[in-house]
User: What shape does this take?
Amino acid sequence: MKKNIGSVLALYPMPLAVIGAMVNGKPNYVLVGHMGIMGHDHVMVSLAKPHYTNKGIIDNKVLSVNIVTEEWLAKADKMGCVSGNKTDKSETFSYTLGEKGAPLIDDALLTIECEVEDIYDTKGFDNFICTIAGTYADDSILTDAGKINYHILKPVLFEMPTYEYFKTGDVIGNCMKIGK
Amino acid sequence: MKKNIGSVLALYPMPLAVIGAMVNGKPNYVLVGHMGIMGHDHVMVSLAKPHYTNKGIIDNKVLSVNIVTEEWLAKADKMGCVSGNKTDKSETFSYTLGEKGAPLIDDALLTIECEVEDIYDTKGFDNFICTIAGTYADDSILTDAGKINYHILKPVLFEMPTYEYFKTGDVIGNCMKIGK
Assistant: This one.
């Protein structure tokens, strides 16, 4: 028998990312744990309105979603501790410009370059609804068939209730087979 | 140096859930891996339009997000293999009605009851944008402070590129501390 603990965010753990965007001609980065997938062709990125990064995203309509792994977690976490409104974060990462002009973090083994199609407003937040312009993956995280291999790529997971990071664990089995 | 593998869904792994809704007066269930968090007060649930469950959600504006754990993964996975359009799934789970009238699956240690505020359309999908009416948690997954404890609750994670399920792994450390 469950009890109602109130209106609590509980849809976790979620993959952690650093969002990259050009702001006033320089790259800027912000840590994000609140994202989503819409249908089979859109990604949603939710950022509080005061973030410096939002200005660049709104101006250029392009952003990168850089999936965080343990190797660079400390640098990623720092992007949530320091604001671009006060500190120039442009030198934090080496980066490559994507085809649409977003800075793709070289440390990330997987980066999604997105074009902003719409901004959905909720209280205090810009929710950027994006199409996927390109998905940039390191060879080391691809299967022989060219798919992303989560036996090798292990995204860091975030949960807000107690503010901890977790590992992506081992495989359990195959979707749409376990129940058959 | 990463290479562009095209417009590929890559924001994984994501927590897996079974969505519950009353359809024509009976509970129905559907498996979902595409959801998201908007701001600090909304959950987004993305369901292909032909799903039988969508009719009930649109009629009643209420749904439940039942977080899947390994104990009941086989039953959950089956909810993605069988359509309510052809098969009556109402007897699959024992359930408790939430305060807003959504069926909360008793097997789930954590269920979020949501009220649909808006439906955002993308190609072929209803993306239900919801407020959180209540969060129902089993005592066994709460910390002494009453927070959700992801050292005990281990949601099953989904990824679409190779259609596998993964475990939520061990803790790595604390958000906003690792980078300081």
